[in-house]
Design goal:
Layout: E1 11-15, H1 44-55, E2 61-65, H2 75-83, E3 90-95, H3 100-110, E4 114-118, H4 124-131, H5 136-149, E5 154-158, H6 164-167, H7 169-179, E6 182-186, H8 202-213, E7 217-218, E8 229-232, E9 240-243, E10 256-259, E11 264-266, E12 274-276, H9 278-283, H10 287-299, H11 321-324
Parallel strand pairs: 1-2, 1-10, 2-3, 3-4, 4-5, 5-6, 6-9
Antiparallel strand pairs: 7-8, 8-9, 10-11, 11-12
The structure holds S-adenosylmethionine and iron/sulfur cluster (SF4).
Length: 326
Amino acid sequence: MTDNQGRTIDYLRISVTDRCNLRCVYCMPEEGMESIPHSRIMTYDEIIRVCRILAEHGLKKIKITGGEPLVRKNVVWLISEIKKIPGITSVTITTNGVLLKESYEALVEAGIDAITVSLDTLDPELFRQITRRDELSPVLEGIQLAAKQARVPLKINCVPMMGIQNQGILNLLEYVRKFAVDIRFIEMMPIGLGKQFEFVSEDALRKLIEDTYGEMTLYCERRGNGPCRYYDVPGFTGKVGFISALSHKFCHECNRVRLTADGFLKTCLQYDCGVNLKPALSEGVSDDTLWKMMKEAILQKPKAHHFEEEKKDAEDEERGMSQIGG
Ligand code: SAM
Ligand code: SF4
C-alpha cells in the first residue's frame, strides 16, 4: 500500500492497551489517565482481523506496544496468532521491562522477532522520579535474562531529557556495552506531557559519545523497521542509534500507521487523522468495507508533522503517548 505521497506503508504499531504499570513523567500523569473501558478496547480477534486485511495489501511489520503491552492478559497469544498471518515478516514488542523476566520464555515461544526495552536511567532514585515507581530491579533482571539468553535481538530505548550528565547517559552506554546490545536515543516528542520537556538533540549526544569513545561511523545497512540511524562506536559490539523526529525529520520516508487500543487507525503521530474502525468492526462489516475505510485513511496520511511550529491546529492530537503507543 502506498499513500498519496508515494510512501510505502508496511509497518503498523498496535497499542494493545492504554494501561500501564509505570507513570513516566513525560507520558502519563501521576494519577494515571482515565482508562478506555473494556467494552471499547479492541478484542484480539478484531486486532488479528485488521492485521490480516492490511497484510493482504502489503503490511509486513508489526510492533506490539501500549501503554504497557505485557500488562494485557494473553498478549503472547495475540503475538503467536499475528505471526501466523501470511505476509507478516516481523512482530516485535516495546516494553518497559517490568514484566519481561516472567514473560521472556513465552514471548520467544510465541515467535517474537525482537524485544525493545525502554530504560532512561540506571540510577534507582532517578528511575523512581522518572517512572514514579520503584521497579528498576525487575527491569534490569529482565534485560539481563534477555541479553544472556540472546534468543531474539534486544534493544534499549532511552529518551534523554534533563541534562545529559544528570540522567547518566554514559552509565547507560557502559551498560549496553557490557551486554553487547543496541541502544537508541529517542528525541522527546511534544505530545501530551512530553510538551513540558526539552528534547536533547542528537548532535549533543553524538558529541558526548565521540568525546568519550572516539569517532562514530554511520552504519549503512538496514537494521530494524523504522527511521533509526545507527552508528558503530569504538569498543561497542551493539550499535548506537538515534530516532530524531525533531532535529532530523524523517516524514518523507515514514512507512508507518498506528492502531490505538480503541481501534483508531492513526496515520500521523501529530495529527488526529485516520479512521475509527471499532464501530465498523462491532457492526460486523465486510473485509472489503474495512479495507476501503483503511485505504482511504492511509491515502490521506499527512505529508509531514509540524512539531517545530508554535501554532496549535484544531486537528492536533489530544491523545497522550500511552494511548498512542509511541
Ligand atoms: N510502555 C512501553 C514502553 O515504555 O516501552 C511501550 C509504550 S511507550 C508509549 C513506547 C515508547 O514511547 C517508550 O520508549 C517511551 O519512552 C516513548 N515515549 C513516551 N512518551 C514519549 C515522548 N513524549 N517522546 C518520545 N518518546 C516517548
Ligand atoms: Fe508506561 Fe511506557 Fe508511558 Fe512509561 S512510556 S508511562 S512505561 S506507556
